[in-house]
Structure formats: structure tokens, C-alpha cells
Amino acid sequence: MKRIVLFLATNVAIMVVLGITVHVLGLNQFMAGGQLNLTMLLAFSAVLGFGGSFISLLISKKVAKWSTGAQVIETPRNPTEQWLVSTVQRFADKAGIPMPEVAIYEGAPNAFATGPSKSNSLVAVSTGLLQSMSREEAEAVLAHEVAHIANGDMVTLTLIQGVVNTFVFFLARVVGFMVDQFLRKDDSESNGQGMGYFITVIVMEITLGILASIIVMYFSRQREFRADSGAAWLMGTKQPMISALKRLGGMQAGELPSNMAASGISGKGGVMALFSSHPPLEQRIEALAQQK
Fold first, then answer.
1. Is 81 assigned a catalytic role?
2. What is the signed CA dihedral for 42, 165, 55, 122, rounded to 10 degrees?
3. In this structure, are residues 194 and 180 in contact, taking their beta carbons and an 8 Å threshold?
4. How much of the chain exceeds pLDDT 70, in percent?
């Protein structure tokens, strides 16, 4: 329940901020005088499309900590915490990135990396993963998450999300304007948008949003292959990552909050593979096995 409330509150706050922004900038007047100003509409769409994605990225570490209850290891209190910190430090040094924060959270087997940049990132692992995997397998998972950070995957996915969101907002309103003009072509005295505009925008945003999700999830799946490969490079061998993936295939992976699902080492596939943030474990294992 806490995760749901936090997710809804975060998204409502983001939409309020963006709504105020476009109002102050006057970008919501893209249809003033009954004419469609495409330049202003594109700016309006970009603010909403990129704004939400970048705000989510900027607060991703805080939201991740709040939603999972992850506790950052400031000073290691036991051998396990000392091993976690030293392992992440070793991989970060080899990858050439600043040391991420390292955290542990209570939950079923999973791990994730998040943060707005390579120099401001977080690697978190669940107690369930530490308890159910061998030390070498858990090490491979940590390498996978560090590889995500080194590859800049959080920023890349944010940019892709921002681009597709912008086109969704833009095209939905262009089509809405055209439909509204067609429905009211014999009513030259009408001003403002009619019901045809609002209904069409809603329908188009839903339809285009589904297509946009397919695009974003495709890129999300590709970055998992790259992070697996990166983990093999960081460890100097691919076998531990293969073993970790096989282990994940035999257990129930912990569910992450919806805004972080694409950041985990493992995720639940959607009803259709097109909407899954992670490739099937079998495909990831096969790709690694074929890697030279």
C-alpha cells in the first residue's frame, strides 16, 4: 500500500509541476484563436514528455529508497556488508565510474541500480538474493548492476521515454485538432475545442501510449543483454553470470515498484513479451553462452 501511495503521489506532484510550468510559459495556448500552432504544441509536448521523465530520473534514488525501504550502508557493520561495499567498489573502479551508494533491503530475490547519473547512483540488493545465491552468483548480480550504471542505462532510457512521450502528446493533439475541425466544418461560429477534440486526444494518447511502451520496453530488454555482457567483462568470466541467471530461473523473483521494474536484475514478463522490461532468462543465458 505504501508503494502505491508513493507512486501515485509522486506522479500527481510531477503533473502539477509540469502543468504550472506550461501555464507560466504560455505553452498551453497552442490552439489560441482556433488555429493550431505546431511550434508551440511541440514545445508544450516536449515539456510534458521530457519533463516527467527527467524529474522521475532526478528523484529516482530517493523514491527507490522510500519504496523499498533500502538502507544505505554508511559504515559496514558485518562481513556481508563489508563484502558488498568492497565488491561494488572493485567493479566501479574497473568500470571507471565513481563509487555508487550500496544498500540492502528486505525482500524476495532481486537487485537494482538507479540514480540520475554515473556519479550519483545506487546499487541495492535484497536480503532474499543474498540468502539464496552463492557468493559468486551474488557477485555477478552486483557486476550486472554496476554495468547498468557504467553504460548510462538510466539516462538512456529516460531520453528514449522522453522522446516517445513527446510524440504521443504531439500527435494525439494534432489528430484531435483535425478530427474536431472535420466534425465542426459547417459550424464556422464555434470557438475553442469541441468534444471531438477531447475524446480523440484521450483515445490517441491511450493508443499511442501502448505503442510507445513497446518501443521503450524493447530498448529496456536490449540494455539487459548489454549489462549481462558487462558483468562477464567485470568478473573476467561469463560463467558466474550464467549461474546467477539459472538460479533466478528456479526461484520467484521479488517484485519491484512499477517505476523501478526495468531497473532490477529480474522482472516479471508482461502478458506479451513485447511489454516485458526483461528478456526471458533463457535468451539471456543463451546470449551469454555464445559470447566469446
1. no
2. -140
3. yes
4. 87
